[in-house]
Amino acid sequence: MTDNIKSVLKNTPVILGTAQIINNYGITNNYKRTVNQALDILNVSNRLGIFTYDTSKVYLDAHKTIETFIKKDFEKFCIIEKLNSNDIAIYDKESRPVHWPWLNTYKLNGGTLCLMLHNGIDYLNKACRKNLQNCKEKGLANFIGISVYDPDILNKCLNYGGFDLVQCPVSIADRRFCNTKLLKKINDQNIIINMRSIFLQGLLLKMPQKKISFFNEYKEIFLNYENLFPDYEKKILLAIKSVLEDIKASIVVGVESSSQLKTIDRMLKLKKNKYLMADIIKSRKLWGSLPKQAIDPRKW
Predict the structure, then answer these.
(1) Cα–Cα distance between 60 and 140 in angstroms, integer?
(2) What pairing do the DSSP bridges indicate for beta strands 52-56 and 192-196?
(3) Deepest in the core among 77, 112, 146, 220, taking most CB within 10 A?
(4) How far apart (Å, rounded) are the C-alpha atoms in residues 154 and 123?
(5) pLDDT tens digits, residue range 182-240?
(6) What is the distance between the alpha carbons of residues 250 and 70, in angstroms, rounded to a whole number?
């Protein structure tokens, strides 16, 4: 049964990120959504066949919104719940009803749960690693995973092994994880890959609404990119197809509206052609000159 669930999770094309489902998360996002707008996104996601949600208690009202939407129909959903090392240390049958009451209900009614360390570097700590692994061994989660920002950290975590899923940033501007040896190591351990930040918090699609230290360098690249590809949907298409050309894996996307999610779905389903590949190469060359600090949101 677990292998079947893992196969489904591995072959899920799109995972809905919920950091901005209500909150104004992201450098290009400057407004909050209403509960009804958030529920509309979830409704559309299901119509598109998206049943896996990436969430965390630090994402404003995301838990409450998902719980309201799912109600009692948990069985077909997969939740990737991100926690920090302190959360993992106290996560047990007694603490879950207090700190994660919706997950307690969720597990009682079926469904699939993956507990993920929000910062994979914590997995290098023996106590934290054991705490996370215990969650799976005790039946508190179907799977466990880590979210990483640095290929070197991922490589060290792979030396320990013992996790099922990894999320890493991959985009036109950030191809550090597209390393053949690293990918082979992941595949050899039968670890599922999720690619996040494929739009670089929206910076590959439109100018930021908030201040960034590397704005001048970014602006020059973006305006050149805009000259090459002025169409918004084409930018979405290039962002998606570029990462899938590098790594065959699920993509985690956050959206500002249900219409944006529909556009992502359409672009994902478009067939690749030789002209598209040429445009991807142009895009990679242009965005490859972005400063290093610009590809790590923790440094913004």
Answers:
(1) 24
(2) unpaired
(3) 146
(4) 9
(5) 999 999 999 999 999 999 999 999 998 778 889 999 999 999 999 999 999 999 999 99
(6) 22
Q: In this structure, what is the dihedral angle of CA atoms 188, 191, 197, 198, given to the nearest 10 degrees?
A: 60
Could you give the domains of the chain? 2-203+247-270 (3.20.20.100)
Grade residue 268 by pLDDT with cuts at 50, 70 and 90.
very high
Is residue 95 within 8 Å of residue 103, measured between CB atoms? no
Query: In the numeric block, which tokens belong to residue 118?
Result: 């929000």
